Amino acid sequence: MLRLNLLTKKCFFSIVIIATIILGYQIPVAGLGFFGGHLEEGADTSLVLFALGLSPWMASQLLWRVLTLGDRKPYTKKRQTKMQLTMLLIALIQSLAMTLQSTSLGEFLSVSLPLSIILIAASYVVALLANLNAQYGIGGVTLVFLTNILLSKEDLGFDLSLLTERHNLVFLGLLVAWSFLSVFGMVILERAEYRVKIRRLGLNNDFANDSYLPFKLNFSSGMPFMYAFTLLAFPKYLFTLLNILSGKSIDFSNALTYFTINHWKGALVYMAILLSLNLIFTMFNGDVVNTVETMRSQGDYIIGIAPGNDTKQYLTTLLWRLGMISGISIALLAGLPILLAQLDTEMADLATLPTIIMMIASMMMTVIQEVSIIQLVRGYHQIVDYPEDS
Protein backbone atom coordinates (compact mmCIF):
# COMPACT_ATOMS: atom_id res chain seq x y z
CA MET A 1 0.00 0.00 0.00
CA LEU A 2 1.35 3.39 -1.00
CA ARG A 3 2.05 5.63 1.99
CA LEU A 4 2.20 9.36 1.32
CA ASN A 5 4.38 11.74 3.29
CA LEU A 6 2.88 14.68 5.16
CA LEU A 7 3.74 17.29 2.52
CA THR A 8 2.07 15.27 -0.24
CA LYS A 9 -1.02 14.80 1.91
CA LYS A 10 -1.23 18.53 2.62
CA CYS A 11 -0.86 19.43 -1.06
CA PHE A 12 -3.48 16.88 -2.09
CA PHE A 13 -5.87 18.15 0.60
CA SER A 14 -5.46 21.75 -0.61
CA ILE A 15 -6.10 20.68 -4.21
CA VAL A 16 -9.37 19.08 -3.11
CA ILE A 17 -10.32 22.27 -1.23
CA ILE A 18 -9.59 24.45 -4.28
CA ALA A 19 -11.52 22.09 -6.55
CA THR A 20 -14.51 22.27 -4.20
CA ILE A 21 -14.45 26.08 -4.22
CA ILE A 22 -14.17 26.19 -8.02
CA LEU A 23 -17.15 23.84 -8.23
CA GLY A 24 -19.14 26.08 -5.88
CA TYR A 25 -18.53 29.05 -8.17
CA GLN A 26 -19.92 27.10 -11.13
CA ILE A 27 -23.24 26.24 -9.45
CA PRO A 28 -26.07 28.78 -9.88
CA VAL A 29 -28.10 29.30 -6.72
CA ALA A 30 -30.95 26.85 -7.33
CA GLY A 31 -32.22 29.08 -10.16
CA LEU A 32 -34.48 32.03 -9.53
CA GLY A 33 -37.15 30.31 -11.58
CA PHE A 34 -37.17 27.45 -9.06
CA PHE A 35 -38.69 29.81 -6.51
CA GLY A 36 -40.96 31.49 -9.02
CA GLY A 37 -39.10 34.80 -8.95
CA HIS A 38 -39.02 37.40 -11.72
CA LEU A 39 -35.82 39.25 -12.49
CA GLU A 40 -35.77 43.00 -12.17
CA GLU A 41 -34.45 45.03 -15.08
CA GLY A 42 -30.65 45.17 -14.93
CA ALA A 43 -30.51 42.51 -12.20
CA ASP A 44 -27.48 40.33 -11.65
CA THR A 45 -28.14 36.89 -13.12
CA SER A 46 -24.75 35.45 -12.15
CA LEU A 47 -25.64 34.53 -8.57
CA VAL A 48 -23.62 31.44 -7.66
CA LEU A 49 -23.49 29.21 -4.60
CA PHE A 50 -20.27 30.64 -3.14
CA ALA A 51 -21.08 34.25 -4.06
CA LEU A 52 -20.48 35.49 -0.50
CA GLY A 53 -17.10 33.78 -0.28
CA LEU A 54 -15.12 34.38 2.91
CA SER A 55 -16.33 37.95 3.33
CA PRO A 56 -18.76 37.40 6.27
CA TRP A 57 -16.30 35.22 8.18
CA MET A 58 -13.39 37.60 7.65
CA ALA A 59 -15.44 40.67 8.58
CA SER A 60 -16.54 39.07 11.86
CA GLN A 61 -12.98 37.93 12.60
CA LEU A 62 -11.62 41.43 12.00
CA LEU A 63 -14.32 43.06 14.12
CA TRP A 64 -13.61 40.84 17.10
CA ARG A 65 -9.86 41.21 16.70
CA VAL A 66 -10.26 44.96 16.97
CA LEU A 67 -12.69 44.74 19.90
CA THR A 68 -10.46 42.33 21.82
CA LEU A 69 -7.15 44.03 21.01
CA GLY A 70 -5.08 43.87 24.19
CA ASP A 71 -7.55 41.46 25.82
CA ARG A 72 -5.58 38.43 26.96
CA LYS A 73 -8.59 36.36 28.03
CA PRO A 74 -8.84 33.01 26.23
CA TYR A 75 -11.58 32.47 23.69
CA THR A 76 -14.70 31.30 25.51
CA LYS A 77 -17.79 29.59 24.18
CA LYS A 78 -19.73 32.81 24.77
CA ARG A 79 -17.28 34.84 22.68
CA GLN A 80 -17.33 32.20 19.95
CA THR A 81 -21.13 32.39 19.88
CA LYS A 82 -20.98 36.18 19.52
CA MET A 83 -18.54 35.82 16.61
CA GLN A 84 -20.87 33.36 14.90
CA LEU A 85 -23.85 35.69 15.38
CA THR A 86 -21.82 38.58 13.97
CA MET A 87 -20.92 36.50 10.93
CA LEU A 88 -24.58 35.54 10.51
CA LEU A 89 -25.68 39.18 10.61
CA ILE A 90 -23.05 40.25 8.07
CA ALA A 91 -23.89 37.31 5.80
CA LEU A 92 -27.60 38.17 6.04
CA ILE A 93 -26.99 41.78 4.98
CA GLN A 94 -24.79 40.79 2.06
CA SER A 95 -27.05 37.98 0.86
CA LEU A 96 -30.20 40.14 1.02
CA ALA A 97 -28.42 42.89 -0.92
CA MET A 98 -27.55 40.34 -3.61
CA THR A 99 -30.91 38.62 -3.85
CA LEU A 100 -33.10 41.73 -3.63
CA GLN A 101 -31.28 43.13 -6.66
CA SER A 102 -32.62 40.16 -8.62
CA THR A 103 -36.14 40.06 -7.16
CA SER A 104 -38.80 42.42 -5.88
CA LEU A 105 -39.69 43.18 -2.25
CA GLY A 106 -43.05 41.52 -2.80
CA GLU A 107 -41.24 38.21 -3.32
CA PHE A 108 -39.18 38.51 -0.14
CA LEU A 109 -40.61 35.48 1.69
CA SER A 110 -41.04 33.30 -1.38
CA VAL A 111 -37.80 34.06 -3.22
CA SER A 112 -35.28 36.42 -1.58
CA LEU A 113 -35.27 34.84 1.87
CA PRO A 114 -34.81 31.22 0.64
CA LEU A 115 -32.03 32.36 -1.70
CA SER A 116 -30.37 34.27 1.15
CA ILE A 117 -30.50 31.21 3.40
CA ILE A 118 -28.77 29.17 0.70
CA LEU A 119 -26.05 31.81 0.26
CA ILE A 120 -25.53 32.10 4.02
CA ALA A 121 -25.22 28.33 4.42
CA ALA A 122 -22.74 28.27 1.53
CA SER A 123 -20.65 31.02 3.19
CA TYR A 124 -20.35 28.83 6.29
CA VAL A 125 -19.16 26.00 4.06
CA VAL A 126 -16.47 28.27 2.57
CA ALA A 127 -15.39 29.31 6.08
CA LEU A 128 -15.21 25.64 7.05
CA LEU A 129 -13.10 24.87 3.98
CA ALA A 130 -10.74 27.73 4.86
CA ASN A 131 -10.28 26.47 8.41
CA LEU A 132 -9.80 22.90 7.23
CA ASN A 133 -7.13 24.03 4.78
CA ALA A 134 -5.39 25.99 7.54
CA GLN A 135 -5.34 22.84 9.68
CA TYR A 136 -4.73 20.05 7.17
CA GLY A 137 -3.67 21.75 3.94
CA ILE A 138 -1.01 24.17 2.83
CA GLY A 139 -1.22 27.92 2.29
CA GLY A 140 -3.70 28.46 5.12
CA VAL A 141 -6.75 30.70 4.82
CA THR A 142 -4.87 32.87 2.29
CA LEU A 143 -5.05 30.13 -0.35
CA VAL A 144 -8.83 29.90 -0.03
CA PHE A 145 -9.27 33.67 -0.06
CA LEU A 146 -7.01 34.09 -3.08
CA THR A 147 -8.96 31.40 -4.90
CA ASN A 148 -12.18 33.27 -4.13
CA ILE A 149 -10.68 36.55 -5.36
CA LEU A 150 -9.50 35.07 -8.65
CA LEU A 151 -12.86 33.38 -9.23
CA SER A 152 -14.96 36.38 -8.27
CA LYS A 153 -14.11 39.31 -10.55
CA GLU A 154 -16.71 41.41 -8.77
CA ASP A 155 -14.48 41.95 -5.75
CA LEU A 156 -11.65 43.49 -7.72
CA GLY A 157 -13.16 44.38 -11.05
CA PHE A 158 -10.18 42.49 -12.41
CA ASP A 159 -10.52 41.40 -16.03
CA LEU A 160 -7.57 39.83 -17.76
CA SER A 161 -9.34 40.07 -21.11
CA LEU A 162 -8.41 43.76 -21.15
CA LEU A 163 -4.84 42.67 -21.78
CA THR A 164 -5.85 41.52 -25.24
CA GLU A 165 -8.61 44.03 -25.90
CA ARG A 166 -6.46 47.10 -25.28
CA HIS A 167 -3.01 47.88 -26.59
CA ASN A 168 -1.78 50.48 -24.14
CA LEU A 169 1.69 48.97 -24.02
CA VAL A 170 3.19 51.82 -22.00
CA PHE A 171 0.65 51.40 -19.21
CA LEU A 172 0.92 47.62 -19.27
CA GLY A 173 4.72 47.80 -19.26
CA LEU A 174 4.71 50.12 -16.26
CA LEU A 175 2.16 47.90 -14.52
CA VAL A 176 4.25 44.77 -15.02
CA ALA A 177 7.40 46.58 -13.86
CA TRP A 178 5.56 47.88 -10.80
CA SER A 179 4.31 44.36 -10.08
CA PHE A 180 7.88 43.05 -10.02
CA LEU A 181 8.86 45.96 -7.77
CA SER A 182 5.94 45.11 -5.50
CA VAL A 183 7.05 41.50 -5.19
CA PHE A 184 10.60 42.64 -4.40
CA GLY A 185 9.27 45.05 -1.80
CA MET A 186 7.02 42.38 -0.29
CA VAL A 187 9.94 39.97 0.05
CA ILE A 188 12.01 42.64 1.81
CA LEU A 189 9.14 43.48 4.17
CA GLU A 190 8.60 39.80 4.96
CA ARG A 191 12.26 38.97 5.56
CA ALA A 192 13.53 42.15 7.23
CA GLU A 193 13.61 42.35 11.01
CA TYR A 194 14.64 44.83 13.68
CA ARG A 195 16.87 43.37 16.38
CA VAL A 196 16.72 44.75 19.91
CA LYS A 197 19.83 43.90 21.91
CA ILE A 198 19.04 42.26 25.25
CA ARG A 199 20.90 40.80 28.20
CA ARG A 200 20.14 37.26 29.32
CA LEU A 201 20.81 36.35 32.92
CA GLY A 202 22.99 33.29 33.31
CA LEU A 203 24.52 33.68 29.86
CA ASN A 204 28.16 34.63 30.32
CA ASN A 205 29.81 33.11 27.26
CA ASP A 206 30.70 34.67 23.90
CA PHE A 207 27.04 34.65 22.85
CA ALA A 208 26.01 37.03 25.64
CA ASN A 209 26.86 40.08 23.55
CA ASP A 210 25.01 38.70 20.52
CA SER A 211 21.65 38.14 22.21
CA TYR A 212 18.78 40.04 20.65
CA LEU A 213 15.00 40.18 20.42
CA PRO A 214 13.85 40.01 16.76
CA PHE A 215 10.84 41.98 15.48
CA LYS A 216 9.65 41.47 11.91
CA LEU A 217 9.29 44.61 9.85
CA ASN A 218 5.99 43.28 8.54
CA PHE A 219 4.04 41.37 11.18
CA SER A 220 0.85 41.30 9.13
CA SER A 221 2.08 39.40 6.06
CA GLY A 222 -0.67 39.48 3.39
CA MET A 223 -3.59 39.83 5.81
CA PRO A 224 -4.22 43.57 5.21
CA PHE A 225 -4.98 42.88 1.54
CA MET A 226 -7.54 40.21 2.35
CA TYR A 227 -9.36 42.19 5.01
CA ALA A 228 -9.17 45.44 3.03
CA PHE A 229 -11.27 43.98 0.22
CA THR A 230 -13.74 42.69 2.80
CA LEU A 231 -14.06 46.14 4.38
CA LEU A 232 -14.53 47.75 0.98
CA ALA A 233 -17.19 45.24 -0.06
CA PHE A 234 -19.42 45.33 3.04
CA PRO A 235 -20.46 49.03 2.84
CA LYS A 236 -21.45 48.51 -0.80
CA TYR A 237 -23.78 45.69 0.19
CA LEU A 238 -25.15 47.74 3.09
CA PHE A 239 -25.86 50.83 0.97
CA THR A 240 -27.39 48.66 -1.75
CA LEU A 241 -29.72 47.02 0.77
CA LEU A 242 -30.71 50.37 2.29
CA ASN A 243 -31.38 51.74 -1.19
CA ILE A 244 -33.69 48.82 -2.00
CA LEU A 245 -35.52 48.94 1.34
CA SER A 246 -36.09 52.70 0.97
CA GLY A 247 -37.70 52.15 -2.40
CA LYS A 248 -34.66 53.69 -4.11
CA SER A 249 -35.70 57.07 -2.71
CA ILE A 250 -32.25 57.65 -1.20
CA ASP A 251 -29.30 58.04 -3.53
CA PHE A 252 -26.15 56.41 -2.16
CA SER A 253 -24.18 56.68 -5.41
CA ASN A 254 -21.82 59.35 -4.05
CA ALA A 255 -21.20 57.39 -0.85
CA LEU A 256 -20.47 54.24 -2.87
CA THR A 257 -17.59 55.96 -4.67
CA TYR A 258 -15.64 55.87 -1.39
CA PHE A 259 -15.80 52.07 -1.44
CA THR A 260 -15.26 51.48 -5.15
CA ILE A 261 -11.65 50.62 -5.82
CA ASN A 262 -11.84 51.90 -9.41
CA HIS A 263 -12.63 55.44 -8.22
CA TRP A 264 -9.92 57.74 -6.86
CA LYS A 265 -11.88 58.22 -3.63
CA GLY A 266 -12.12 54.47 -3.18
CA ALA A 267 -8.41 54.10 -3.96
CA LEU A 268 -7.51 56.56 -1.19
CA VAL A 269 -9.86 54.79 1.24
CA TYR A 270 -8.29 51.47 0.21
CA MET A 271 -4.80 52.79 0.97
CA ALA A 272 -5.96 54.18 4.33
CA ILE A 273 -7.54 50.82 5.20
CA LEU A 274 -4.33 48.98 4.29
CA LEU A 275 -2.31 51.25 6.58
CA SER A 276 -4.80 50.95 9.44
CA LEU A 277 -5.07 47.17 9.15
CA ASN A 278 -1.31 46.80 9.04
CA LEU A 279 -1.02 48.76 12.30
CA ILE A 280 -3.76 46.67 13.92
CA PHE A 281 -2.18 43.36 12.92
CA THR A 282 1.28 44.57 13.92
CA MET A 283 0.10 45.43 17.43
CA PHE A 284 -1.97 42.24 17.66
CA ASN A 285 0.69 39.83 16.38
CA GLY A 286 3.54 41.66 18.11
CA ASP A 287 1.85 41.02 21.48
CA VAL A 288 3.93 43.39 23.59
CA VAL A 289 2.30 42.28 26.86
CA ASN A 290 3.25 38.63 26.33
CA THR A 291 6.78 39.59 25.23
CA VAL A 292 7.34 41.71 28.35
CA GLU A 293 6.00 38.96 30.63
CA THR A 294 8.22 36.35 28.96
CA MET A 295 11.28 38.56 29.34
CA ARG A 296 10.46 39.18 32.99
CA SER A 297 10.01 35.47 33.74
CA GLN A 298 13.33 34.63 32.05
CA GLY A 299 15.22 37.53 33.60
CA ASP A 300 15.94 39.18 30.23
CA TYR A 301 16.08 42.93 29.83
CA ILE A 302 16.77 45.48 27.09
CA ILE A 303 20.08 47.29 27.44
CA GLY A 304 19.46 50.83 28.62
CA ILE A 305 15.73 50.27 29.26
CA ALA A 306 14.28 49.58 32.71
CA PRO A 307 12.18 46.38 32.93
CA GLY A 308 8.42 46.63 33.31
CA ASN A 309 6.42 49.60 32.05
CA ASP A 310 9.43 51.28 30.43
CA THR A 311 10.12 48.15 28.38
CA LYS A 312 6.45 47.86 27.46
CA GLN A 313 6.31 51.49 26.33
CA TYR A 314 9.55 51.11 24.36
CA LEU A 315 8.36 47.98 22.53
CA THR A 316 4.93 49.50 21.85
CA THR A 317 6.55 52.56 20.26
CA LEU A 318 8.87 50.30 18.26
CA LEU A 319 6.00 48.20 16.94
CA TRP A 320 4.07 51.35 16.04
CA ARG A 321 7.02 52.64 14.00
CA LEU A 322 7.58 49.30 12.28
CA GLY A 323 3.86 49.10 11.51
CA MET A 324 3.89 52.59 10.03
CA ILE A 325 6.91 51.83 7.83
CA SER A 326 5.52 48.56 6.48
CA GLY A 327 1.97 49.93 6.29
CA ILE A 328 2.92 52.98 4.24
CA SER A 329 5.07 50.80 1.98
CA ILE A 330 2.23 48.31 1.38
CA ALA A 331 -0.31 51.10 0.83
CA LEU A 332 1.90 52.81 -1.76
CA LEU A 333 2.81 49.60 -3.59
CA ALA A 334 -0.84 48.57 -3.85
CA GLY A 335 -2.53 51.96 -4.14
CA LEU A 336 -0.39 54.06 -6.47
CA PRO A 337 -1.16 52.00 -9.61
CA ILE A 338 -4.88 52.32 -8.85
CA LEU A 339 -4.59 56.09 -8.47
CA LEU A 340 -2.54 56.47 -11.67
CA ALA A 341 -4.96 54.25 -13.56
CA GLN A 342 -7.71 56.83 -13.04
CA LEU A 343 -6.21 58.60 -16.07
CA ASP A 344 -7.57 55.76 -18.18
CA THR A 345 -10.75 54.37 -16.65
CA GLU A 346 -10.86 51.41 -19.05
CA MET A 347 -7.47 50.25 -17.78
CA ALA A 348 -8.25 50.95 -14.12
CA ASP A 349 -9.46 47.38 -13.61
CA LEU A 350 -5.96 46.06 -14.30
CA ALA A 351 -4.40 48.28 -11.64
CA THR A 352 -5.19 45.68 -8.98
CA LEU A 353 -2.66 43.32 -10.59
CA PRO A 354 0.17 44.33 -8.18
CA THR A 355 -2.14 43.66 -5.22
CA ILE A 356 -2.95 40.16 -6.46
CA ILE A 357 0.70 39.43 -7.19
CA MET A 358 1.74 40.65 -3.72
CA MET A 359 -0.90 38.38 -2.17
CA ILE A 360 0.42 35.45 -4.19
CA ALA A 361 4.02 36.30 -3.20
CA SER A 362 3.06 36.51 0.47
CA MET A 363 1.22 33.19 0.28
CA MET A 364 4.14 31.53 -1.51
CA MET A 365 6.54 32.67 1.21
CA THR A 366 4.18 31.21 3.80
CA VAL A 367 4.03 27.95 1.85
CA ILE A 368 7.83 27.83 1.55
CA GLN A 369 8.10 28.33 5.31
CA GLU A 370 5.58 25.54 5.94
CA VAL A 371 7.45 23.18 3.61
CA SER A 372 10.76 24.02 5.31
CA ILE A 373 9.28 23.24 8.72
CA ILE A 374 7.87 19.91 7.49
CA GLN A 375 11.22 18.94 5.97
CA LEU A 376 13.05 20.01 9.13
CA VAL A 377 10.76 17.90 11.30
CA ARG A 378 11.18 14.93 8.98
CA GLY A 379 14.94 15.31 9.22
CA TYR A 380 14.77 15.00 12.99
CA HIS A 381 11.87 12.54 13.20
CA GLN A 382 13.74 10.31 15.63
CA ILE A 383 14.30 13.21 18.05
CA VAL A 384 10.74 14.56 17.96
CA ASP A 385 9.11 11.15 17.57
CA TYR A 386 7.84 11.97 14.07
CA PRO A 387 6.90 8.99 11.85
CA GLU A 388 9.09 9.05 8.78
CA ASP A 389 6.48 7.86 6.28
CA SER A 390 3.43 9.65 7.64
TrEMBL record:
<feature type="transmembrane region" description="Helical">
    <location>
        <begin position="12"/>
        <end position="35"/>
    </location>
</feature>
<dbReference type="GO" id="GO:0016020">
    <property type="term" value="C:membrane"/>
</dbReference>
<dbReference type="GO" id="GO:0015031">
    <property type="term" value="P:protein transport"/>
</dbReference>
<dbReference type="InterPro" id="IPR002208">
    <property type="entry name" value="SecY/SEC61-alpha"/>
</dbReference>
<feature type="transmembrane region" description="Helical">
    <location>
        <begin position="225"/>
        <end position="247"/>
    </location>
</feature>
<feature type="transmembrane region" description="Helical">
    <location>
        <begin position="267"/>
        <end position="286"/>
    </location>
</feature>
<feature type="transmembrane region" description="Helical">
    <location>
        <begin position="134"/>
        <end position="151"/>
    </location>
</feature>
<feature type="transmembrane region" description="Helical">
    <location>
        <begin position="85"/>
        <end position="102"/>
    </location>
</feature>
<feature type="transmembrane region" description="Helical">
    <location>
        <begin position="171"/>
        <end position="189"/>
    </location>
</feature>
<feature type="transmembrane region" description="Helical">
    <location>
        <begin position="47"/>
        <end position="64"/>
    </location>
</feature>
<dbReference type="Pfam" id="PF00344">
    <property type="entry name" value="SecY"/>
</dbReference>
<feature type="transmembrane region" description="Helical">
    <location>
        <begin position="347"/>
        <end position="368"/>
    </location>
</feature>
<feature type="transmembrane region" description="Helical">
    <location>
        <begin position="318"/>
        <end position="341"/>
    </location>
</feature>
<dbReference type="InterPro" id="IPR023201">
    <property type="entry name" value="SecY_dom_sf"/>
</dbReference>
<feature type="transmembrane region" description="Helical">
    <location>
        <begin position="108"/>
        <end position="127"/>
    </location>
</feature>
<protein>
    <recommendedName>
        <fullName>Accessory Sec system protein translocase subunit SecY2</fullName>
    </recommendedName>
</protein>
<keyword id="KW-0472">Membrane</keyword>
<keyword id="KW-1133">Transmembrane helix</keyword>
<keyword id="KW-0812">Transmembrane</keyword>
